[in-house]
Amino acid sequence: MSDIDIEIDGKLLKAKPNSMVIQVADEAGIYIPRFCYHKHLPVAANCRMCLVEMDKSPKAVPACATPVMSGMKIWTRSPKALAAQKAVMEFLLINHPLDCPICDQGGECELQDLSMGYGAANSYFTYGKRAVADQDIGPLIETEMTRCIQCTRCVRFGDEIAGLRELGAIGRGEHMEISTYVTHAIKSEVSGNIIDLCPVGALTSKPFRFTARAWELKQSPSIAPHDCLGTHINVHTRAGKVMRVVPRENKALNETWIADRERYSYLGLYQADRVTKPLIRVHDHWQETDWQTALNYTVEGLQQVISQQTADQMGALVSPNATTEEFFLLQKLWRQLGSSHIDHRLRQIDFSDQDSFPVFPQFDGSIADLENYSTILLVGSNIQKEQPLIALRLRKAVLKGTNIFAVNMMDYAFNFKIAGKKIAAPHEFIFTLAGIAKVLLPEQADLAEVSVSEEDRVIAERLRAREKSIILLGALALNHPQAALIRWLVHQIAKATECALGLLTEGSNAAGAWLAGAIPHRTAVGEKVKLGGLDAQSMWKQARQAYLLVNVEPDLDCANAVVAKQALAQAKFVVSLSVFKNPLLDCHADVILPIAPFTETAGTFVNVAGQWQSFKGVAQPYGESRPAWKVLCVLGHLFHLPGFDYASTEEVLQELKLSLQRNATTLPEVPGAIIQKNGVMKLSRLGEIPLYAGDSLVRRAHALQSTQAIIEGELLAVRMNPQTARELKVTSEEKIKVRQQGGELSLPVIFDKRVPPRALSIFGGLAATTELGELFGAIEVIK
Amino acid sequence: MTEATGILLSEKVREQLDRWMVRYPVGQERSAVMQALHYAQEDNGGHLTEDIMDAVADYLRIPRISVYEVASFYSMYNLVPVGKCIINVCTNISCMLCDSEKVLEHLKIRLGIELNETTADGKFTLRETECLAACVNAPVAQVGKKYYENLTPEKIDAMLNELG
Ligand code: SF4
Ligand code: FES
Ligand code: FES
């Protein structure tokens, strides 16, 4: 259909058929006041603030719910429109407190602003106002329900966007209240968005409330440091200190939303265990010192290991949330010192196919594209928890008709409907994919022993239907002990069905790490190194004499805490560049250098789709912490290495980008392997990382921690299928002892039907479960 | 999480509901929510509890909150225990002009209860309601399906005797 001509305030405009007047006005920059309308929410038209005059209509009409018609004329500021708006404003204020100075929303309140612009100074209403009791909806959101104007944006957000309907309009007429009815904490992992949506002070951020006023805050753009899509955020600071984080609109990535993880992780920034001064170990005591001394100490320590042994005895591990510049400088330093042992893939185990990787892990298409596939196969991912905003895209896709199939190690209930699923314990997981592959490649010899189920056929046929499809691999697949085999199978399926592929890597900058060379087998931009180094696991298993850690808490961030601990205990010299203190490193490190988190340094994150996004430091450095890129440059100088004279992160980036122009190397084929039953393993552990335990910053955000306890339930427990329990002869009342790689732990049992038979789900990434070692792998129950 | 257990709904209610649900297209079971609440309320002796509403939600596979919304919106669902007869006195404008206040007063004295209360013997609950669309014969009260019109203290006494 072609565009329609309409006229607003005398301006001739083109409008898409089926659009609403308010949309056309917004595009043309004509502002119409509104409360309930939001461009990403379904239209409710219940506040009536957007009333405008329309020709041939005796009454003013709501612009948000009036579709455009050819030749229609609208006046948004005519006497009739203004009178209507003024009257609505008076009605809205009948029951709204007029005490903005004591309201947390004051200064950034839509009702306050619009009553200034469209309201009247006095009201005819002189009676008592209604008051509504507040609700406790959890540690993240504070309510002050007397201020609610019943626009229902929060309700519609849960219904439409988050896919978890928790708030509703209870009661009727003057007695209507927005409420959960039964008091409980909101469980959505994107719940904080209702704070931004709420036009008034009814829903505000609990941790931020009454700590600053809007006009004292400086807003600076940044990039979220936890998810793989590089969510756009705005950081609000006062006097150089981060006060809160809010979303920054980006249509292609996060639209107007952010996850609670990105919104509240800032709460961890100024915790008591933040390192403020360089620390060195003197006679087994930590001593605060100045940077110069600490850096010299670091260089001497490493030098000693190099001269007494070789540089081969040094390993470097870096958080996947580091900036691209940090990755680049770290690998440059390390390689110039003579070691190629550098890695960021801390929770991964299987690297056997790493040579066949493209320059960075494959992700076809863009993030926004995810809405447009007709079939999506989700492999090994608790997507809502790992990448909440990608889950929102997938939900959008499903509402538009996409079929999503899940192949998982636990039967997660997502915020979107799935069309089919295959669930298997970690040690049997590979067969779920192998079955699908076999339908497509019946001749493939490697798959000879694999049997095919009806579900396999359904999924394979859907993928083969030649419509647009994609296979997405999540953290559970990538961290799986047979990750290479999983990738091989997925590649076979993708090739046979010509569907796209996307690896949803952990951390905010895995792609940046690959591109910058923070991997043992390639330097910057995928250049193969002559002698490949040790990967993240081998570096611990084949213990080194010296370690350099950049923002790594080895017991919590790595796939196997047990071997990490052993390696650290025997190492001669351990340097930790870190934002926070960590008890394990307190025991084993020799130097701790305080580095800046993302808010205090400039840098670049590359998202999974290969989009480079640079950001600046927005807050003042805390204590004496310094940006890691500067620390690495100084270390380069102190080692008398060439090429560490950078004045800014831009210069570092420029050098990296120059090398980007070199030709990418051709990739070897992924090796296959015979898929057969693992006869030995009877029971495997599924060591998922809880919702807010992924990295050092979120682990320190107290409000997220209390929310995690509510959402995840008991963290320290063994979850198992009742069938497994029957086989093991355990009941849900008792505690059982489990053993994994020598480590033992006594834990209460919880029956959970989501866990497949022959699997025990025990959370990893928690100090209390580090004794158990590997996140996946064989586990036994000893009573 | 909603699980289709319907554990708290009696066999009778589930049967009634199954028969009712066939009227709606597959996937539109939510349309049956009002009828479902009626059946469940009747089965429970005239009022709904949280557990029952949850059971209805789970049975229809809809979010629990959307059942609370419906149940709290309509006055014919009772969220607290009520008497056998609910006397709804209209206090909207026409009835108000025709002295509905006196009607209420008289009822309060006769029953010894305030608005929204139930008599100790569990017989009567007194309520106020909006326009019953019988303004021509104001003041009006409604009990069950029956309207009592042009009310006077005498007529109220007669009504109570009839119901008592
Ligand atoms: S709480 Fe806020 S967003 Fe929700 S209905 Fe009330 S005013 Fe609207
Ligand atoms: S914005 Fe149009 S009715 Fe609320
Ligand atoms: S006002 Fe009472 S019936 Fe209409």
Describe the structure in your own words.
Chain A is an alpha/beta fold. Chain A is built from 24 helices and 33 strands. In chain A, the strands form 9 sheets. A 7-stranded mixed sheet of chain A has the order 14-13-24-23-22-15-16. In chain A, helix 8 packs parallel to helix 15 and helix 11 runs parallel beside helix 14. The termini of chain A are far apart. Chain B is an alpha+beta fold and about 160 residues long. Chain B folds into 2 domains: about 5-75, Arc Repressor Mutant, subunit A; about 85-165, Glutaredoxin, CATH 3.40.30.10. Chain B contains 7 helices and 4 strands. A 4-stranded mixed sheet of chain B has the order 2-1-3-4, with helices on one face. In chain B, a hairpin with a 2-residue loop joins strand 3 and strand 4 (about 145-150). Chain B is elongated, with a radius of gyration of 18 Å. The N and C termini of chain B lie far apart (about 45 Å). The model of chain B has no long low-confidence stretch (mean pLDDT about 90). At the A-B interface, strand 7 of A face helix 4 of B. The structure holds iron/sulfur cluster and FE2/S2 (inorganic) cluster (2 copies). Iron/sulfur cluster binds near residues 151 and 152 of chain A.
Proportion of beta-strand residues of chain B: 5-15%
Q: What hetero molecules are bound to the protein chains?
A: iron/sulfur cluster, FE2/S2 (inorganic) cluster
The secondary structure category of chain B is: alpha+beta
C-alpha end-to-end distance of chain A: 70 Å
Estimate percent helicity of chain A: 25-40%
Largest sheet of chain A, in brief, is: 7 strands, mixed
Radius of gyration of chain B: 18 Å
Oligomer: heterodimer
Q: Considering DSSP H and I runs of 4 or more, what fraction of the residues of chain B is helical? A: 40-55%
Structural class of chain A: alpha/beta
Name of the CATH superfamily of the largest domain in chain B: Glutaredoxin
Which parts of chain B are unreliable, with pLDDT below 50 for 5 consecutive residues or more? none
Number of helices of chain A: 24
Counted beta strands of chain B? 4
H/E series of chain B? HHHHEHHEEEH
- State the end-to-end distance of chain B: 45 Å
Largest sheet of chain B: 4 strands, mixed
**Rg calculated over all Cα atoms of chain A:** 28 Å
> So, CATH architecture of the largest domain in chain B?
3-Layer(aba) Sandwich
Provide the spatial order of strands within the biggest beta sheet of chain A: 14-13-24-23-22-15-16
